[in-house]
Amino acid sequence: MADTQQVDAKAERTADKLARRISAFSKAHGGAEGQVAYIGERGARIVLVGEDGGWGDLVAPSYAIAEKAVEKSGITAHESFDGEFAAKVETGPYEWKRMAGIQIGG
Hints:
Blueprint: H1 2-28, E1 32-38, E2 44-50, E3 55-60, H2 63-73, E4 76-78, H3 83-86, H4 93-103
Parallel strand pairs: 1-4
Antiparallel strand pairs: 1-2, 2-3
């Protein structure tokens, strides 16, 4: 019983820490929306898109922790990274150069 409570407390602290980081991103970008994606054994990726088009991501150790962090932060959560949500992302020269580099083996 004590082990379960210890794990739950650790998960709660992790969710709180992620929620603070999500809230800081949201504040810095005039608001934010997010989407949680399962990435296998590694956990879940929280993709964030700010109202100003800025974007970023965080990795949580589990999907449940990621969902809890997004809920605690109060941002809007999307089911998927669909076209309308993705269109809010603004990319600059760095991203385009990096994407081109991946295509040509760079």
